[in-house]
Design goal:
Number of strands: 0
Low-confidence stretches: none
Shape: elongated
Helix content: over 70%
Largest sheet: none
Structural class: mainly alpha
Number of helices: 4
Length: 102
Amino acid sequence: MGSRSDNDNKIANNKLTTIQALSGGIIAGGCSVIVSNPFDVVKTKCQSLVNSLPTKNVIHNIYNTQGIAGFFSGLLPRFLKVAPGQGFLFSVYHNVYNYLDD
């Protein structure tokens, strides 16, 4: 019951290379930007208005003036900032973890 199969041992001992960790971090960072960008756009619009409007009105205003694409404005610069940083963070974390684990 307590023994592990050879396949389980291979999975447990499989470590990511630096490139794999970097790539995984870049993909994860990119996904987080795509998912969170609409919320960030709405937040920024709410903070920049002199007369604060309810969030619902800000969302309607963005959609009515710019359509769905309005919620993704500024996506590329944010992606270029966040994704490489997450890749670097992820690869450093895994390399340090593997170093300390050995």
